[in-house]
Amino acid sequence: METELMTVPVEEIDLGDLSLWVDGPPHAIFDRLRTEAPIHWSEMASWDGEPGFWSITCAEDVHAVSRDWEAFSSERGGILAADHSVPIEFQNAMFIGMDPPRHDRIKALFQRGFTPKRIAAHEDEIRAITLRVLDQLEGRTEFDLVADVAQPVVGRVIGSFLGAPEEDDAMWADFANRGLALGDDELQPEGEGTVLELIEKGVMRVIEMAAERRETPTDDLTSLLVHAEVDGERLEDYEIASGFALLVAAGNDSTKATYSSGMLALLREPEQMQRLVENPEMIPNAVEEFLRLFPAFAHFRRTATRDVEMHGKTIREGDKVILWYPASNRDETVYACPHQMDIERTTDHQAFGAGGRHFCLGTALARLELGILFTETLKRYPSLRLAEEPDAVRSLFANQPRSVRVTVG
Ligand code: HEM
Fold this sequence. Notes:
Elements: H1 2-5, H2 27-36, E1 39-42, E2 53-56, H3 59-67, E3 72-73, H4 88-93, H5 102-111, H6 116-121, H7 123-135, E4 142-144, H8 145-162, H9 169-179, H10 195-215, H11 221-227, E5 229-230, E6 233-234, H12 237-268, H13 270-278, H14 283-293, E7 299-304, E8 308-310, E9 313-315, E10 320-324, H15 325-328, H16 363-380, E11 384-386, E12 405-408
Parallel strand pairs: 2-10
Antiparallel strand pairs: 1-2, 3-7, 4-12, 5-6, 7-10, 8-9, 11-12
Helix pairs in contact: 7-8, 7-16, 8-9, 8-12, 9-10, 9-12, 10-11, 10-12, 12-16
Bound molecules: protoporphyrin IX containing FE.
């Protein structure tokens, strides 16, 4: 399929076509767009009632659009390629779907929960969660790094950071997986409750938790948010609940995806895995390379607030604009041999966004958690082997393998 698309006129390529995403992001097409059509229009023709979009694929352009919130709004429309994935009103209730000044006011309050001190204080807990999950695999000769390691660790890490009880982890993971599926039917099976039902249930849970923390303050993030004040103003319950949902979604699928993709890449390149096993001090740098090659989220979307000229094309007011991180992170004008994994490469990337107002709030937590996950997995299992070639999740947003089944060597 991709080979055929290398010869069709570039205007006929529709990046909304899920058949292009069977093996994950369509890198060969992104390579072509960066050189032939750095601003490119896709119709989303196979998606019922979803708007078409402009694709931005070069690192410099992703950077420029990310920083220009006045021309490229996060609030004037949804932030995901499919408007019907998560209700637009709910996307706009989360600060990732707001513009300044509302965005800045709410983010500032949430930032208090993400100080270096608070994150460092969670390190022992993250390690304990990881070791407990790995202990549960004792005696098994085959398991799945996604379902048996990544999911239980990331769900409990974000749950414990926020102060949510462990029995809610499955509900929040379901909310994150369904909301962010964007095309993948297995992540969004029919008949098990809609995203809207999960949102309603989750919001009620957070409102209950907020009421408890108001009565009895604790040292978790929910308590901090309930009591935080900026210029005499406090967060409303719905602002806490929608921010909480944002953190759960961002905290679940992101680190799970990066860990799973990184482990899969190492299993396919055993000599690089061996280098990390023997030199664990290289893990933080390797994590940056995994983030570059396999950004957990394939895109975020903006809406133009005025006509903007770019590379000879006119983006009209109201048009949707998508920032494709898997494309910008492999821009050949920035990275030598961009598709190659080199765990010693020292470069920046755009996996956490490309600067500007919406730059990821969770970078320090994600880096700490990923460092611990890779370190403890490789220490416990220095000679894992891939049991079978996995499928990628077929999604315009979630960039991750469906499973990574391994045998203990
Ligand atoms: C591998 C891990 C992660 C990746 C790749 C990632 C990626 C991103 C990206 C691409 C954005 C949007 C940037 C933009 O639109 O310009 C973002 C925003 C955000 N992320 Fe992350 N993220 C990760 C982990 C986390 C974690 C662990 C949390 C919190 C617990 C988190 C919380 C957020 C929040 C709250 C925003 C919205 C910021 C805003 O709108 O101002 N992320 N992240």
